[in-house]
Amino acid sequence: MTDGGPTPEKRPHRKTPPATPAVQAWLDGEEPRDHLNTTDENETAELWTRINSETEQLRRRSTPIHVQQKILSALPDLPPGGGASDATKPGFSRVVLVIGGIAALVVGTLVGMMLVR
After folding, report:
1. Residue 10 has what pLDDT?
2. What pLDDT, on a 0 to 100 scale, did the predictor assign at position 107?
3. Nearest-CA neighbor of 31 among 15, 43, 40, 20?
4. How far is C-alpha 82 from the geometric centre of its chain's CA atoms?
5. What is the rounded distance in angstroms from the CA atom of residue 100 to the CA atom of residue 30?
6. Average pLDDT by consecutive 10-residue portion of the chain (117 residues)?
7. Between the CA of residue 3 and those of 11, 38, 74, what are the distances in Å?
């Protein structure tokens, strides 16, 4: 329910058409913006200008130091299961990885020798 006050006017949704070759050239930095002739091209260029501006603002943002400190202080000192040794972790052992690497090297050498002949 509204209080009867004026409601802000909603702009109608406008689907942006695909970028024309002129807009593509402007986005690539090949042509100046004054080469855009149609209203659609200028509106598309304005949209991309806003997107680039907002993106640059978001890139410059950083987490305040007090928030970083709060996050880092909430992390546990040891990773989950931190006391487990390498032997109990799932995956390949170092010996298997070394043997596999040597086998791959030998196979690669044999294939290379066959191709050179």
Report:
1. 73
2. 93
3. 20
4. 31
5. 51
6. 64 69 89 86 89 92 90 82 57 85 93 84
7. 22, 42, 45
| Token pair of 34 as six digits | 């004054």
Report yes or no on 57 lying in a domain: yes
Residue 35 one-letter amino acid: H
pTM above 0.90, yes or no: no
Residue-number span of the structural domain to which 47 is assigned? 21-63
106 within a domain of the structure (yes/no): no
- Residue 116's alpha-carbon distances to 35, 51, 104, 112, in angstroms, are 57, 54, 18, 6
Per-residue model confidence (pLDDT) at position 35: 84
Q: Tally the domains of the chain.
A: 1
Q: Whole-angstrom Cα distance, residue 39 to residue 43? A: 6
The separation between the first and the last C-alpha atoms of the chain, rounded to the nearest angstrom, is 85
pLDDT of residue 115: 85
Show Cβ contacts of residue 44 under 8 Å, excluding neighbours closer than 6 positions.
Answer: 16, 17, 19, 20, 23
The residue behind tokens 């004054």 is 34
